[in-house]
Amino acid sequence: MTDKITEPASKTTLPLEIPSSDFWQKIHRETSQKVHLCFQCHKCAAGCPMAYAMDVTPVQLIQAISLVLEDFVLNSKTMWLCASCQTCNTRCPQDIDIARIMDAAKILAVQRGIPPPVPSVHAFNRTALQNMKWFGRLYELGLIGMLKLRTFQFFKDVGLGLKMFFKGKLKILPPFSFKRTVMTRRIFIRVKKAGG
Known about the structure:
The structure is a single chain. This protein is mainly α. It folds into two domains: 22-111, Alpha-helical ferredoxin (Fumarate Reductase Iron-sulfur Protein, Chain B, domain 2, Orthogonal Bundle); 119-193, no CATH class. It is 54% helix and 0% strand. The protein has helices spanning 22-31, 43-47, 58-66, 70-74, 78-81, 87-91, 98-111, 119-135, 140-151, 158-166, 178-193. The protein starts with 21 loop residues before the first helix and ends with a helix.
């Protein structure tokens, strides 16, 4: 007589479908990433060069998205401090694009009018994009001037700025190219039409 192995009546499995939550659906639509496949190995957090400054680690933010903790995620400063260096993506055994998820969470927070916990990062992002829109690429001296006007930190890093200027790292006039500016503007128009 042989022993018959039977399956348990109910098995606990990870959900393979995206939950119906509006928040999760928006993150998924923006990124096409299945955050629920994260099994919390912490490799992304271990390799993140900015984890020391974050309020929660990248793996904790991904788990919060999986648990649909919308307020927790959108008020976190973790996504604002993400350097988009792709270290987390490289280390993830599930091939989850964590940096892309961070960007999607930032976009969602801005769309919902949630003030960023790290205002200087948001000011830099807006200033850099405006700078590229005007000149077709980054014009560093203009970027610094615009950023100082937005953040009111007029004397921060003045010594470093002067050193860079005297070493020829900061040009007085922007490197203007009509063709490059037109091509860059077309990119901005395409992104705006796509809903970005």
